[in-house]
Amino acid sequence: MDDRQFRTAMGKFATGVTVIATEVEGDTHGMTANAFMSVSLDPKLVVVSIGEKAKILSKIKESKIFTVNILAADQQELSMIFAGQLKEHKEVAFGRLDGKPVLDGAVAQVACEVSAEHVEGDHTLFIGRVTDIHLEDKEPLIFYSGKYRSLVAEQPVTI
Ligand code: FAD
Ligand code: NAD
């Protein structure tokens, strides 16, 4: 099995899009990620998976904190900025939740403290203990088969 086949198959799992953010000595760093999952309700835990080449990896190891910002449908540009897909550098202002950097306008902001990290293959899984949450009533951004999408509500069937 080649890498392309694996990625094509994994891309068939439609996901939301998040920006993981952390802060070291006052410098905030963000990275676009769709490898995010809810893990446990009691205690409240989530997991993110960060590639070994990502600059944010060493920063989360050092800070021991991160936030997960679940992007809204109108935040595709932020996804592209934090995936390094835009040519020009754009300044992004961060807000605060529980003292941690978050992106305003996200569908959900989830503030976490690292409770465990596991190296698996070429990624590190960070388990985050959730310390605070902020929600907004907006539609999410969707990622499917390598393309951004938006949710389309099913029309009720009328006979
Ligand atoms: P960099 O390459 O340094 O940062 C990424 C970009 O963010 C740069 O352009 C940088 O300028 C910008 N940036 C960072 N901080 C700031 C700031 N404070 N203000 C303004 N701009 C800033 N990779 C994974 O490891 N796991 C995943 O789950 C994952 N999911 C992805 C899902 C999607 C939909 C996409 C498009 C990519 C995904 N990636 C994932 C790939 C990952 O987003 C890129 O490889 C990313 O460029 C790696 O980031 P980095 O930490 O090396 O940081
Ligand atoms: P793509 O076809 O590369 O990705 C489709 C799916 O494959 C992703 O949703 C993910 O589930 C999986 N995948 C892709 N790269 C992976 C990796 N290095 N490790 C583990 N799983 C991976 O989609 P695309 O639009 O070309 O992606 C844009 C860029 O973002 C690519 O460079 C891709 O490698 C990267 N990306 C990385 C991850 C990740 O590291 N977990 C996830 C998504 C995208």
UniProtKB/TrEMBL annotation:
One term of GO molecular function: riboflavin reductase (NADPH) activity
Keyword entries, A-Z: Oxidoreductase
UniProt organism field: Neobacillus rhizophilus
InterPro entries reported for this sequence: Flavin_Rdtase-like_dom (IPR002563), NADH-dep_flavin_reductase (IPR050268), Split_barrel_FMN-bd (IPR012349)
Lineage of origin: Bacteria, Bacillati, Bacillota, Bacilli, Bacillales
Alphabetized SMART domains for the sequence: Flavin_Reduct
Flavin reductase like domain mapped to chain residues: 10-150
Superkingdom per UniProt: Bacteria
Keyword Thylakoid found: no
Annotated SUPFAM superfamilies: FMN-binding split barrel
One annotated GO biological process: pyrimidine nucleobase catabolic process
Protein name (Swiss-Prot/TrEMBL): Flavin reductase
